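REQUEST FORM: STRUCTURE PREDICTION
Request ID: SP-0412
Submitted by: Lab K.M.
Chain count: 1
Length (residues): 221
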Amino acid sequence: MTDSLKKRMLDIFLQFNRIRRWKSVLDTDQVSFSLLPEQFGSCKVGSGTYATSEINVNNVNAKTEISIGKYCSIGSNLKIIDTGSHDPSAISSSDMYYVFAESFPKDKLKTLGILEIGNDVWIGDDVTIFAGSVIGNGSVVGTKSLVKGKYPPFGIYAGTPARLLRPRFSEEVKRRLSDLSWWDMPHEFLRQHKELLMRTDIDKSIPELEKLVKGYRDSHA
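STATUS: Completed
RESULT:
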């Protein structure tokens, strides 16, 4: 292997690919940026979301789209995987265009689909998520889980592959929280009522929050 080809492969390895660690952003509803380098797709991150380390994104390409909602808590070493330009039905599963430093034909790019992580999702450490997955609002994903598929809101999921361990709340509470969509409230409102959002006496705290949210929305209609 020539030195130039070794360097090219090292560059590819280094570029494969990290979303930078970001601090919680409260002055805008959403942060959008390209995966680095830009030909490797795009990512949208909602307000109030934070990650405790960089996020590894592997096998992505220009078709890869990642959407992460508001007020998500993401643990260390999250890995996101797309199909990239590997095709197991071909003679070689390797991406020969990258190996030989040539641009991959855009008409051959594939993706597993848009990755959608909802609002107020808590993801533990060392989780792997495949592109094309949908994690519903208010879900919890346990440490070292492998996520592939669709996961309804307000569930606690874990395992390889991840499966439902139990719902966080009753169907009635899930409906009321979905109707509230508190994560769409202004930052100052949430700052003022943050202790209410962290209470565990659900039967009392949800009616209080519903009253406050309704009052705010009525006064700003």
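NOTES: DSSP finds six helices and 17 strands in the chain.
Reviewed by: T.R.
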